[in-house]
Write a structure and sequence with these properties.
Elements (H helix, E strand, L loop, with lengths): L3 E4 L2 E4 L4 E7 L8 E7 L6 E6 L3 E3 L7 E6 L4 E6 L8 E8 L13 E2 L3 E6 L1
Parallel strand pairs: 2-11
Antiparallel strand pairs: 1-3, 3-8, 4-5, 4-9, 5-6, 7-8, 9-10, 9-11
């Protein structure tokens, strides 16, 4: 079993930055694909970014967000720059045991509780 705990959310003005962190338990973290998803009120949970041996981003995140991981710390990060009001959502960290880079929500085996990001205009 893997437990994921997100942190770093908050309130920021448009154009600002935030860095989300996700701390994972377990000794096999380095082999997992790690992903970030987000869910705005009244909307489906959507893919933001993922990292395995490479990285992949949703179009909405390209050029503004950067996903990275520190396997020694069992932590994955999401650096978010040039934030927009439409980035407002609960952001979730997820882990996929397969290690294959995927954007599909149902492929992820473990989920964190989420952290709120609010971008004011």
């Amino acid at each position: 079993q893997v437990q994921l705990v997100e942190s770093g959310g908050g309130l920021v003005q448009a154009g600002g930055s935030l860095r989300l962190s996700c701390a994972a338990s377990g000794r096999t973290f380095s082999s997992y694909t790690m992903g970030w998803f987000r869910q705005a009120p009244g909307k489906e949970r959507e893919f933001v970014a993922a990292i395995a041996r490479s990285t992949y981003y949703a179009n909405s995140a390209k050029g503004r967000f950067t996903i990275s991981r520190d396997n020694a710390k069992n932590t994955v990060y999401l650096q978010m720059n040039s934030l927009k009001p439409e980035d407002t959502a609960v952001y979730y960290c997820a882990a996929d045991r397969s290690g294959v880079l995927t954007t599909t929500r149902d492929r992820y085996d473990y989920w964190g509780q989420g952290t709120q990001v609010t971008v004011s205009s």
